[in-house]
Automatic annotation (TrEMBL):
Pfam families: HTH_3. This is Helix-turn-helix transcriptional regulator. The lineage of its organism: Bacteria, Pseudomonadati, Pseudomonadota, Alphaproteobacteria, Sphingomonadales. It comes from Novosphingobium anseongense. InterPro entries: Cro/C1-type_HTH, Lambda_DNA-bd_dom_sf. SMART domains: HTH_XRE (SM00530).
Amino acid sequence: MTELRSAENETIATRLREELARRRISRQALADMARISLSTLEKALSGARPFTLATVVRIEDVLGASLRQQAAAAPGLEAIFAPEGMGSYSRPAVRWIEGSYLTLRPAFSQPDAVYAYRTEIYWDEPSGHLRFAESERADSAFTQAGFVSMPNLSGHTYLVTSEQGQYRLVMLGRATRERRMFGMLSTLQVGTGSQLVPVACPIALVPLDQIEVVEFGLVDDDAYRALLGQATTSDFCRWYG
């Protein structure tokens, strides 16, 4: 187990606290996504225990950003175009999508209820493309994070989680004038025993600053149901069979 030097630990802890604050991700959510204990994270951030290289790598993978000191980039070489496989979008062209969103989908466990959580979409400077990270989920162990693809060919936005060959996909149609996005979520639901069952459902992302009273978790609210209903009533996604 490789432990990092004291000075490097302080730098990593400072950068990590800044990332958590900027993305509004709780320490518990980060620990769950990185598959480390909350105690390990808390002690490392407080300086009571040094970060190990393995822990830092796990956290960097979740955040999609480097916390360790990197060589300074040459002037003018900052990446402003996403990779071709994500649509080759430019930073200026996608600034409108950056921000915090109230995310709504049907509750799998309770008929007519809506499951609500936060999704943060942001530009990852080291990688040169958009990323997303979820938080405020009642089932924090299933919190997702990944990259954002925005190809011109379809005009859709894709939020993609890829972890050890396993994928979860949110496909969103063109944003409305209010920057609201609607579409379909394709994921895995816990079934009988340890079985995972493929499921798909409508999903809505609404800028948080447009919501007067924000609730997270299982919500029984007509306004939330109406927002989610726009995914199908406005033809952002369709169901057959």
